[in-house]
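writing this on my phone so excuse typos. first protein, seq and then structure
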Amino acid sequence: MEKIILLLIFLNIPDPKFNHQIKKDSLEPKIYKDRWFSEDKFFHFSVSSLLVGSSYHLLRCRLEKDKKFALPFSLTTTFLIGVGKEIYDKKIKREFFSYKDLIYDLLGIFCGYFLFIY
């Protein structure tokens, strides 16, 4: 009997009850904690502000585009990148769409505008 138990352990044959338990648990909704202050929110804020500044600098100084084109392009592109990241989190990573992340993206865009453009 012991040899059979050891053989089953080494062969790693899954228990049907265990597999059923996994399937049952995977159908239950996940609960996510989306805090207002976290490392993720800091990254959303800082990346958005740096994207606004760097894209405006690239368009205005390096590619010599006028301000009427560079300003709205850098602001809207940065916002759309933030929205795209949240859609990616929802659809591909199967997590959740965080409106708090979008708020931090907007705060970063405004901060980047006043730091790098205004």
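second protein below, same order as before
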Amino acid sequence: MSSERAEGAPVAVRAEMPAMSVAPPWIAESALLEQAYAMARVAHGAQRRPVDDRPFLDHATEVAGFLNEAGFDEALVAAGLLHDAVERGALSEEELCSEMEEQISSLVLALTEDAAIESFEERKAALRRQVGAAGGRALTVFAADKLSDIVGLRRGIQESDRRSVEGRIGASVGGMATHYRESVGVIEAERPGSAFLPALRAQLDGLVAEAGGSAQGGRGDP
């Protein structure tokens, strides 16, 4: 695996992503990634992702896969595998910090929402500020995460229908598009050379079109 590039190589988003029942081959290239993948697998267990009803572990692996494809270092890829393990999974902050080196655990915690903030809009805004303050590496994982989020939401709409997806996530597609647009705005402002921006813009445009051009506030977590 190559060392981290300044902004990463361009990333291609595939039209379809098969469900991942086993770890992708590149995980075996690194003992660190094997450990992070094993921790993510335990943390997420049988969880399924509401937007596309796939195993939640697939999302963690997709985020890490985008980072790996862009040529980022294994510590950043490991953070991608674990980015939701505390916020959405069963991994505790103490377990994370005891098992992973500080540069990885600090990234994961920078990407973890404050569950004490009840309002969806306020919680997401606080996360965007938190990630922006954490710096470029956190923003890079955040960008890969948002790309997977948007792709996953579009995938769910294509595989079932918009109404079914909105019922599962408890939010409108337009509301989620607003959140993602604001997230992409943070990345554009703070990391304008990000490898993920071209794909993020294209996927967001597609999502807005599928939302009927609307982008309104809403509740829900994909």
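The first strand starts at residue 48 and ends at 49. thats all i got for now
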